[in-house]
Amino acid sequence: MRLVVFTILFLIGTSTFAQNDFYKLNFGLQSAIGFAWAHDDKVSTIKDTYLSNLTFEISKYHFGNMAEKLCKKGYYNGFQFSYFRFNNDILGHSYIASYFLEPILLKTENIKLSLRAALGLAYANNPHDSITNPLNKNYSLYVNPYLNLGLNVRYQINGGSAIKACVHYNHISNGNIQDPNYGLNFPSMSLGIEKTINTYKNTQKIIDEKSNWRLDLALFASNKSSTLSLKDRFWVYGLGLNLSRKVNLLHAYTIGAECMADESVRFLYQMELRKGRSFYRLGANVGHEFLLGSKFIFSQQIGVYIFNQTPYISWIYHRWGLNYKLTENIMIGSNLLADLQKANFLDLRMTYSIIKK
């Protein structure tokens, strides 16, 4: 599964948005400071934990007529490779590789303000171990999915170099594949330099720009662990219905509903002798999709549970997903559901789409 995710990210980075007029190839280097957020009483052992960081980036700055049709000011995309070191031995240090997409929000002659979303994998060297590291409740696997949301400012100091300042929110979690998994959240601030290597012109054929509607019917399932019983595993399975409106080559907006059954909740009710409670949940959500070329869709959704009888699960949730189109009407993918700041489960899914052009 990890190899599949890495391959998907590689293909996205090398083939997405080849249809734009021009792009500049950039290399960047930056250093960051930040802290680990003790967002739950169960992870109070990481309170007052600080971090240092070094990041290397390879990016493309897309501009020209086609880039401006995707994002009015142009956009960046590329890969970042990061090293994070925490001053708390419980967390150790992490190596992260991720793909990012970064539309420009504001552009002047010398300044660019942009919003970054990144998805990747993190190798963290000191996961939870009942004997050697029992205090680490944040993560329990060496390799975990990584998410990032950030705001970047670039100041052009000459024709080929820019100073870059960034504020980022970073998240590492395995989606309850293995517990304990309270997640590692660490805000950071960085300063660095970016160098343009060369400017290139794209000659590939432009894809169809017509907006359309897409109705998705998704079947999903997950096999997760639970702090209620670390030796057992529990199935989550469900059905989702999603309506997507494509507004241009890059963006689509969504509204949807879903129903899911969580076997770990049924186990909780049996342990607490609660009768008459349902382990089903019904949710409604709205969201956004990045349409990454003709094959990939990166989705972000926020939702509320219309029906939820589980006391320890928040009524508000959010989802982050990556789908790959096998055909025009069939997709496979993975989606992470989190209740506020804590991941609930990471699912695998198959989706059938009805498309109206």
Head-to-tail CA distance between termini: 33 Å
What CATH architecture of the largest domain do you see? Beta Barrel
**Unreliable segments (pLDDT under 50, ≥5 consecutive)?**
1-18
Number of domains: 2
Number of helices: 3
The CATH class of the largest domain:
Mainly Beta
Please estimate the helix content. under 10%
CATH names the topology of the largest domain as Porin
Cα radius of gyration in angstroms: 21 Å
How would you describe this protein?
- The longest helix has 14 residues, at 2-15.
- A hairpin with a 4-residue loop joins strand 6 (143-156) and strand 7 (161-172).
- The model is unreliable at 1-18 (pLDDT under 50).
- With 357 residues, the protein is mainly beta.
- The strands form two sheets. An eight-stranded antiparallel barrel has the order 1-2-3-4-5-6-7-8. Strands 9-10-11-12-13-14-15-16 form an eight-stranded antiparallel β-barrel.
- The chain contains three helices and 16 strands.
- The protein has helices at residues 2-15, 65-70, 263-272, and strands at 22-35, 50-63, 75-86, 93-107, 111-124, 143-156, 161-172, 184-201, 213-226, 229-246, 251-262, 280-292, 296-308, 316-325, 330-339, 342-356.
- It has two domains: 2-201, Porin (Beta Barrel); 213-356, Porin.
